[in-house]
Structure formats: C-alpha cells, structure tokens
Amino acid sequence: MKTPWLILLLCCLALAHLSLAKKGLEFPRYDGKDRVLDINEKNYKKALKKHDMLCLLYHPPSPAGKDQQKQFQMTELVLELSAQVLEEKDIGFGMVDSQKDVKVAKKLGLTEEGSVYVFKNDNVIEFDGLLSAEIMVEFLLDLLEDPVEMIGNALELRAFDRMEEDIRLIGYFKSQESEHYLAFQEAAEQFQPYIKFFATFDKAVAKELTLKMNEVDFYEPFMEEPITIPDRPNSEEELVSFITEHRRPTLRKLRAKDMFETWEDDMDGVHIVAFAEEEDPGDVWLEMDDDEDLPSAEELEDWIEDVLSGKVNTEDDDDDDDDDDDDDDDDDDDDDDDDDDDDEDNDDDDDDDDDDD
C-alpha cells in the first residue's frame, strides 16, 4: 500500500493522565448555580465584551429521546462545572443552538455542531479535546498563559529539552521590543495552546541551541534535531505558513486535550494508532543496521504489518530475558558446586593434619 502520509500515534493508557488537569487542582461538586448563558442575537455582543475569554458550545437542538436528553444534560453539566471552577478567571461560558440561533452562529463563524469554540481577543480557538470538565479547564488555563514562554538560563533550557512529546518552536531575538519578536508572538497566538512557543534573549542559551539572531527552530515530537525556518528574519505570515505546513508530525502522543485534532484533516493515507503503556517491558523494536539511516515509510509499514500478522515474534525480548536469567542460574549453580568442592578439600586437609598429629 502506498500512502503519501504515514502518521504514527502513540497512545498512553495511563488513566491518571486522562482524568487529571492541572496538578493539584481539585474539582468541587456542582453547586447548582446556573453560570452558562443561553447565547442569542440579543446578548452575544455583550458576552464577548464582558469576558476576556468566551467559551461557546455550538449544539444541535435538544433531543427528544431520554438517552439523548441525558447525554445532553451531561454536556451542560461539563460546562457548568468548568464555569464554576473558573469563575474568578473572567471566562464566560455559553451555548448556541444551531437551529434557533442560526444568525448568531453565522456571525461568530460557528460551523461544526458539538464543537466548543473559545473567543480570545481577535482569535477563535476550537477545542479539540475530550469533553470533560477536567480537560476543558486545563485547556482554558493554558490559553490564559502568555503565548510565548521565555528561556533565560540552563535550568529552563533543560526543561525545554525534556518536552519531547510536544510540537515546539524557539527563537532568538534582541529584546521584547524587537519587531521580529513581536511577529513571533503574533504567530504564537494563532496556535496557542496546541503548539508551544519559546523565545530567548540570552546569548549563552542561543549558543547552546546554535541559534542565530532572529532565527527560529521548529521541533517535531520525539525528533532530536529541529528544522530551522528559512529566510530569517521571518514575518508573522511566513511563520504561520511554515507551521501550518509542518504541524502534522510523523509521530505523536494521543492526548485527551487534543485527541480530535488528530483526525480533523481529510488525509489521503492512514492513521496507525499504537496502544501501549508508556513504560512497556514487552515492547518490540525495529532492528536497523545503521541508527542514522531511518527506515522509509514503506519499510516501516511492512514491519508493522509483520508485527500485526505474527511474523515478528513479540515474545523475543522476553525469551532473551529468560535466557539471561537461566544463564545467571547456571552460573549460580556452578558457583555452589565450586564452593562444595572447596569445602570437601578443606575437610580432607583437616583430616590429614589430625593424622600427622
């Protein structure tokens, strides 16, 4: 099978990561207070002006069936609980009915039923994560952060290096007043919070990253070497164009906060999802003659098919470990035999000494 695109997605089944938002954040019980607005043509402008961020669910009309009604109520509860937790953060929540509020939806650019749209300044961000209060709160808190994070020392640089699961960019600029940094910041706002942007004004940090002035590096998830965006210094439009073209990585981790973004493109190819524990002792590795010579898409696809069909023995690693254990046991037995022989020799020597006496 020939595929122009081959996307590998690594999914961690550790449920704790799917259920927790910000570390240490405890969710209360819903207090029963209505905070979610019924957005219509009369109040949508006021809602946009009142809040720094407005989070809107674009939904179909309320269903008639009991099961569907229950599901709809659960969705409302997710919004209400999120609004309760973030009440002091000046984030508004509302619902837009796709049938009753057609004009409002058109003016706001709402197109996909069941989707959540977040309005922040002049940007509209679609929430592509699992619709739960924990995940939504985490997403919105990330949106409240500055779109660009600063790196100014070796400790922060080490933290940046450990972020291998994320798409991230880092640029080296003269100062926060630099027009090229401001263009970088404007581009960051368009991709927040799905893509992380970093900047440094420190020569030592830039030297460690081999960055030149006004240069930006683009890191794919799980890739050691970045791609340098060409033709520095880059305008906002150039940065946005490059990121849009390269934002679909070869390998990514499937996460609750952006899981549906993975599937949104109509791709002429396949998605391969690997379900595994993050630290799986039974993993299978593709053997390569040269670590620097990565396999082609066709070679990788053939190997995956061999694994799935059973041609590649997934128990080989375990067997090797068992063989190692057996070897260790044999060595221990040999050591015990040697110790027994030494003890017998010592006993014979003692008997000879007694005879001499």
Automatic annotation (TrEMBL):
Give the record's GO CC terms: sarcoplasmic reticulum lumen; Z disc
Region Disordered, residue ranges: 307-357
SUPFAM superfamilies found in the cross-reference section: Thioredoxin-like (SSF52833)
Record bears the keyword Glycoprotein:
yes
The answer to whether the entry has keyword Disulfide bond is: no
Give its localization.
Answer: Sarcoplasmic reticulum lumen
| Compositional bias per record (Acidic residues), positions renumbered to this chain | 315-357
Question: What start and end residues bound the annotated signal peptide?
Answer: 1-21
Molecular function terms in GO for this entry?
calcium ion binding
Give the record's keywords alphabetically.
Calcium, Glycoprotein, Muscle protein, Sarcoplasmic reticulum, Signal
**Tell me, which GO biological process terms does this entry list?**
regulation of cardiac muscle contraction by regulation of the release of sequestered calcium ion
Which Pfam families does the entry mention?
Calsequestrin (PF01216)
Give the function comment from the record: Calsequestrin is a high-capacity, moderate affinity, calcium-binding protein and thus acts as an internal calcium store in muscle. Calcium ions are bound by clusters of acidic residues at the protein surface, especially at the interface between subunits. Can bind around 60 Ca(2+) ions. Regulates the release of lumenal Ca(2+) via the calcium release channel RYR2; this plays an important role in triggering muscle contraction. Plays a role in excitation-contraction coupling in the heart and in regulating the rate of heart beats.
Q: Which family does it belong to?
A: Belongs to the calsequestrin family.
Name of the protein in its database record? Calsequestrin
The source organism is Denticeps clupeoides (denticle herring)
The gene coding this protein: CASQ2
